[in-house]
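pasting for the record
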Amino acid sequence: MKLTEVYLKGFKSIDASGQRIPLGDATVLLGANGSGKSNLVSFFKMLNFISTEALLTYVGKQGASRLLFYGPKVTDSIAFALKFSDGTGTDEYEVKLSHGLPDRLFVTGEKVSFHKKGHPRPQEYYLEAGGAEVRLGKDSNNKTSKVLYRLLSSIRAYQFHDTSDTAKIKDRGYVEDAAYLRSDAGNLAAFLKMLKQHADYNRYYQRIVRHIQRIMPQFGDFALDSIPGNENYVRLNWIDHEDSNYLFDPHQISDGSLRFMALATLLLQPPDLLPKFIVLDEPELGLHPAAIAELAGMIKTSSKNAQILIATQSTRLVDEFSPEQLVVVERDQKNRCSQFHQLSAEALGEWIERYSLSELWEKNVLGGQP
């Protein structure tokens, strides 16, 4: 089952009319600052909280009023539908979240459906509503609910922007915190240590190292021994390609190189550990053009085993994909909302034969400009 479409309305910059966003193996969101790309990424982050029954926590941190399109005076609810398909049938999950006092969101509608190909009507099931959390994970009697909950739980949003001196990625981490790579790569050292020591995963670790060396020629390998005096913790130390006697720590890596290490680990990890749907917000931040080209190659490799959604403003990254993989995000000034539309080579006609996608974007042929 793959996530083929998201329908979303009433969320942040997406108004009550709603928007349908098509999704493929690799989907690139393209748009100007303030167009709404990050708001869609934020929606997928909210799904992470929903799948772990922590929606109440997410709403408490964000504020319900800030999640609703222009606040509760204009919009009283958020609704979304996720459509999954495998060619033989379609599963759909629909949720409505309504505003209530004191500045809370309550689940006022939750439905799952399964439509087998060739059948005239879908099978629909309504779950109990009225609480602060969805009931999908607790519906043990419905096979469709179990499938949808597993699919929902496999959606993960990542952002590796924080490479400050106090970032978790630079701090020591608990060595057993390696079940999966965390959204901020705070457990990168522990995760890499697990891959390196695992008999079946070591070859993927070596592949990650090779890709890092292409971008950072002086990099030799990670030195992931436990911290002296405390075997339960590990730090992202590394050694030089020429001299393995000197140990470098994560503070001796450029921000761009550190982010690339996290990206390479995420995208090149063993397929059985990969989330089924990965969301990346501006992964090109701080990367050299050569590293962006390498990133595009890793995305294409990873998209054979997982779906990937990227929000970007990088012209270099855009040129690595086809028109059908691009979804342009624009702000409708009249209605003050975000609009999403998928490109196609056919619609672009002769333009695509004469210019690259980045050139067409800069000429505002594709849209997505301020």
